[in-house]
Amino acid sequence: MNDQSLGEQAKKIGEAREELSKGIVGQDGLIEGLFLAMAAGGHALLESVPGLAKSRAVALMAQVSGLAFRRIQFTPDLLPADITGTRIFNPGAAAFEVKKGPIFANFILADEINRAPAKVQSALLESMQERQVTIGDETFKLPAPFFVFATQNPVEQEGTYPLPEAQLDRFMLKLVLDYPTLEEEARVVNLVIQETALPKVRALLSAEAILALQEAVRQVHIEERLVRYLSQLVDATRHPKAYGLDLEGRIALGASPRASIALAQVSRARALFLGRGHVEPGDIKAVALPVLRHRVIPTYHAEAEGVRSVDLIEKILAAVKVP
Question: pTM for this structure?
Answer without folding.
Answer: 0.90
